[in-house]
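The records we work with from here on pair a chain with its fold. Each token is a code from a learned vocabulary of local backbone shapes. A record is reproduced here so that you can trace the correspondence yourselves:

_____
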Amino acid sequence: MTRTANAVWNGGLKDGKGTLSTQSKGLSDTQYSFKTRFEDGVGVNPEELIAAAHASCFAMATSAQLGERGITPQSVESTAAVTMENLSITKSALTCVITAPGADRAQVEEAAQAAKAGCPISKVLNAEITLDLTVNV
């Protein structure tokens, strides 16, 4: 499976702007710029997209890991906070709330840790990955 995205940049670094689109059309001519990346401009930025990818990948991987343990979660809510320092991604801090009424807490925690290590985005990141987990059983 191959997925694609396209980015176009026009102009200089600080005064230019760009658009990006994804194959699925989830993003279509979405704006990005120096201001969206390094200040408070309106639009997206690469680090935000990595955070979205990590949060969604982790949530799906957690659901899969829970399923392997015979647990169907009511919900898996995850957030990823990606930190960039000195033009390098240094950390992705995952926060997750899993609601799985009647499930064994230890199995849920084990599944989340397996997902943290095994989700494809975690595997590609060359950064510290942490997990703050809340389990509602």
Notes: The helical segments are 34-38, 46-68, 105-118, 120-124. Strands lie at 5-10, 17-22, 30-33, 75-85, 88-99, 128-136.
